[in-house]
Amino acid sequence: MISAKIIFLLLASCLLSACNTQDLPRQIENVMETVAPQPTTIKSDGLPDKHLISTAFVPQAPQKLWDQPWQDACEEAAILTVHYYLEKENPDLDTMLKDYKDLLASSTTHDINVKDMGKIATDLYGYQTKIVEDPTIKDIKAYLTKDIPVIIPANGKTLYKENKHFKSGGPWYHNLVILGYDDGKSQFTVHDVGTQFGAYFRYSYTTLMDSIHDFPESKIKEEIDNGQKRVLVLLK
């Protein structure tokens, strides 16, 4: 006859085995599935202390080729990031490449400012656009809490302070998409299209706000800090 002690040990072993099985990491097939909702607190300004939009990540160089046009395709990647979110699409590589082709054909130069980005998004997809001049952190957060991503033109050299995945100290002119924020950590969450590690990357409020500069009127990348501080919003 099996003693009570042995039965207890067998049951305990089974329970531990089950727990260990549940703790095994599962394979992540889609970056959109990695974002879990977190509890929020509404602050005195009426905005939650954190918010995050989940959407497909669109790399600037989807085939990991960095010659032209991919070297300067961050504007197109940012537009596609918002486009796929608005259309609730999770594109495969062939779809991305086709959509990239349409966008690249609409650009007359490698580097375009937010006004031209808005015009392309309107012409191709029929979106309404809004350019926000001299945006504040609260301005950006207000759009995000309405589940509206924000396209940021930026000095990549400034972003390099916190994103060492860039090569050569970061690009002079860059674009990315803000998807969320966390007041507790004073960080924005973005899809930084410029690196393969850019999905849901975090930048501090200070660094990201300092980086914001539209493509300069001189059209000289190295003069990016002379570009106006403005951001772009696309609306259906």
TrEMBL record:
The keyword Zinc does not apply. Gene3D superfamilies: Cysteine proteinases. PROSITE patterns: PROKAR_LIPOPROTEIN. Residues 70-192 form the Peptidase C39-like domain. The keyword Lipoprotein does not apply. Residues 1-18 form the signal peptide. Keywords: Signal. InterPro entries: Peptidase_C39-like (IPR039564). Pfam families: Peptidase_C39_2. It comes from the Bacteria. This is Peptidase C39-like domain-containing protein.
